[in-house]
Amino acid sequence: MPKVFVTRRPPESSVALLNDAFGPKNITVFPEDRPINQDELLASVTGADAILSMLTEPMNSEAFDAAGSQLKIVANMAVGYNNIDVHAATERGIVVSNTPDVLTECTADLTWALLLATCRRLSETERFLRSGKWASWSPTFMLGVDVYGKTLGIYGLGRIGKAVARRARAFNMKVLYHSRTQLAATEEAELGLTYVDFPTLLAESDILSPHCPLTDETHHIFNAETFKAMKDSAVFINTTRGPVVDEAALAAALHNGDIFAAGLDVFEAEPAVHPDLLTVDNIVLLPHIGSSTLETRAAMANLAAENIIAALKGNTPPSCVNPAVLEN
Ligand code: DGY
């Protein structure tokens, strides 16, 4: 029977799927509830036919070689897979899979929760109330910015970007987007979207939210120059990957008033947060919880398990990111 190594305990339903498929004695779950470190990973993957991985650990040639040539699949429990060296996996004939679709709506909901919390200064005002300093209603106290009727800018229009755009209709927003590829006119009309170039997206958005994957092209795409090109009243939201933003530049932009506020669910070097971000008031900071609901995390883990079961039984995994491997 094939052997599966799971790098951190996922929702139980996914372990049950693997147990049913291969027998519990062939499934090993890293026993501690923390990210596995590199030495532990290299020691644990030896002989594995499949690895169910988390976005917190780098899966690279060292890990693939430590596993051995029988390794058939690395199934990431995340839609993003920038932690995996897909090129090295493909060279070795290893399938890489992710968990798209099942987290789209949940992540779009969190993006909106963060957007509203940031525009209306919810963290800051709650901190103030808890501090016991609230003395009275005031006509000028902690004023936020309107959301309804504003212009939302989306950078990178994949599944999550589209789901965020759909929700903007309820807020009567104009939605601009910039993406590598422009949608067909029919889809743009259906979603109420207008394609613009990047400088226009920066200049015209009241609220800007990237939904692009992290690649060489998108690394630090939001930096000192781009924050300066945004409106002083702009709100910047990030629920995709931390390194698309130069955090030091964002902190400076907030301190200098180049933009009004920011809401972040992801960071450049998680779980570390740039110290300058911790000293600004007009920011909402969340610990990467975009997909963290009971239903969605179970669906993500189950999909990762299904990818493994398909690959090890010689079937096509439902969400393979390097399909060239399956053609050989
Ligand atoms: C993902 O799936 O890539 C998310 O960041 C996990 O929350």
Per-chain topology:
Blueprint: E1 4-6, H1 12-22, E2 27-29, H2 38-44, E3 50-53, H3 61-67, E4 73-76, H4 86-91, E5 95-97, H5 104-119, H6 122-130, E6 151-155, H7 159-168, E7 174-178, H8 185-191, E8 193-195, H9 198-204, E9 207-210, H10 224-229, E10 235-238, H11 247-256, E11 261-264, H12 275-278, E12 283-285, H13 294-312, H14 324-327
Bound molecules: (2R)-2,3-dihydroxypropanoic acid.
Explain what the structure shows.
This protein has helices spanning 12-22, 38-44, 61-67, 86-91, 104-119, 122-130, 159-168, 185-191, 198-204, 224-229, 247-256, 275-278, 294-312, 324-327, and strands at residues 4-6, 27-29, 50-53, 73-76, 95-97, 151-155, 174-178, 193-195, 207-210, 235-238, 261-264, 283-285. It has a 7-stranded parallel beta sheet, with helices on both faces. It has a 5-stranded parallel beta sheet with strand order 2-1-3-4-5. It has 328 residues and is α/β, with parallel strands linked by helices. The longest helix is centred in the C-terminal third of the chain and has 19 residues, at 294-312. The chain folds into 2 domains: 4-102 and 293-327, Rossmann fold (3-Layer(aba) Sandwich), CATH 3.40.50; 104-285, NAD(P)-binding Rossmann-like Domain (Rossmann fold, 3-Layer(aba) Sandwich), CATH 3.40.50.720. The site of (2R)-2,3-dihydroxypropanoic acid has 7 residues, from loops.
